[in-house]
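#onboarding

Welcome to the new folks! Below is a worked example of what a typical request in this channel looks like: someone posts a single protein sequence, and someone else replies with the predicted structure as tokens. Don't worry about understanding the tokens yet, we'll cover that in week two.

Example request:
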Amino acid sequence: MINAEAEQSTLASRAGEVFRRYRDGQPEAMGELVAMLTPILWHTVRAQRLDKQSTEDVLQTTWLALVRSAESISDPRAVLQWLIVSARREAWRVMRTESRQTPYEIAEDAIQTPEAELPESVVLRGASDKLLWSHIAALPERCRTLLRVIAFADRPDYPELARSLGMPIGSIGPTRGRCLAKLRASLSADARWELR
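Example response:
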């Protein structure tokens, strides 16, 4: 069971507290919330294969929607989940509207996280991004979504991720491991990856 101190340190709780301050008449808190949550929203939207400009538009629309709907969110701690779901839906809407069929290539600005020793970080720093992303695209949707969100979160909030992704909290780590194993196996079987 998560104790009260640990709960306070979660991203959802921190975001909820900042959002509560915004609703209580501190408009500067919205800037803090934007700075705190934009990285995870950025990667959530980019996972839908939108380009940089479309991603920026989706994020702007999502933040404006939050400002308009601020009073309708009954529990401030739900703001992170609300934003993730809203950003994903807006990205889907944009994708349908634009009917994009172009392959996704990771842009240099899409990875702005500190160097880390996680397998995802090591792979993403490689020179074969196009090949890598074609293998990621072949993974099941659940794997693609989980890897994109969890790989770029500074301190993943597992309870909130579980709710947002519709997964039991205890299955996030094992699912992540299985997804990475599938990716490694797929890359190992590809001679082009071995020759890079």
